[in-house]
Specification:
Largest sheet: 8 strands, mixed
Bound molecules: xylulose-1,5-bisphosphate, magnesium ion
Strand order of the largest sheet: 3-2-1-4-5-6-7-8
Helix content: 40-55%
Shape: globular
Strand content: 5-15%
Structural class: alpha/beta
Distance between the termini: 6 Å
Number of helices: 9
Radius of gyration: 18 Å
């Protein structure tokens, strides 16, 4: 089965969005609501176990502020989350959310090689659009033929729904596509959809269990900063620049 498509996660994979993007945006939205809730970096790392912003807020309330139970809690959470999304877009526009090494290079190479490209994320569509518009170079802004986001798949990772949606929308078999993820929740989602997955571990995901991944690296690598390989089909260690030929070779090992 040849490799025909790459399906990218967004948060932690395309960009380091969490610590200086989503986390800061959540805190600003809480302050706007007159709440003294504050998610520091360590707490936010724990809260990331719950995917999806609204779900994360609800989980935090349950765990740390069970006394906060206004009759319209769901509506207030939705309002805070909407503000949070607007703050996130502002942070992206201000350059606070850097793309990860090798992302632009690999997208450009994959497009030139005729691979199909898509996004599969639990984050809101507005966040993905902001990242694409502000962070990708103009020639790559329409590189993704399908954006699978929270709007298309409200049941979030680790459920496979967003990957199922993307594969169906592309009329693509999971056997012909590779997912690129940064976290265990993402790996579990992609694997449950039948996809092989390359993991570029993000800071918050260090130490998670990536059993079952096709390869595990610390980034996609650049010529000036090669990626460290933690596991791959042809070597257990070393360094790499993740190129299309390398992905084709690793992918072909499996069939
Ligand atoms: C990312 C997420 C998202 C973001 C926040 O997970 O869990 O919820 O943290 O985005 P993944 P929203 O990378 O596995 O897709 O606030 O828009 O939900
Ligand atoms: Mg992710």
């Amino acid at each position: 089965m040849p490799l025909e498509a790459l399906i990218f996660d967004v948060d932690g994979t395309l960009a380091d969005t969490e610590r200086d993007g989503h986390r800061v945006a959540f805190n600003r939205a809480f302050a706007d609501e007159g709440l003294d809730w504050h998610w520091d970096e360590a707490l936010y790392g724990d809260l990331l176990a719950v995917t999806g912003g609204k779900e994360r807020i609800a989980h935090y309330v349950q765990r740390f502020h069970p006394e906060w139970s206004p009759p319209d809690a769901t509506r207030i959470i939705a309002r805070m989350h909407k503000r949070k999304t607007a703050y996130f877009e502002e942070l992206v526009a201000a350059g606070a959310v850097p793309l990860r090494p090798g992302v632009v290079r690999l997208i450009r190479e994959a497009k030139a090689a005729g691979l199909r490209l898509a996004i599969a994320t639990t984050t809101s569509k507005a966040n993905v659009v902001a990242l694409i518009e502000h962070m990708l170079p103009p020639d790559l802004r329409s590189a993704f033929e399908i954006l699978g986001t929270a709007e298309e798949a409200p049941i979030k990772k680790p459920a496979p729904d967003v990957y199922d949606y993307v594969l169906a929308a592309m009329n693509l078999s999971a056997a012909n596509a590779l997912a690129i993820e940064d976290s265990r929740n993402g790996l579990v989602a992609a694997t449950a959809a039948g996809l092989r997955t390359l993991v570029t571990v993000s800071d918050y995901a260090i130490g998670q269990d990536f059993t079952g991944a096709l390869a595990i690296l610390d980034s996609l690598g650049e010529p000036s900063a090669r990626a460290r390989i933690f596991a791959s089909p042809d070597s257990a260690a070393g360094t790499a620049i993740v190129t299309v030929p390398l992905l084709r070779r690793w992918f072909a090992n499996l069939h």
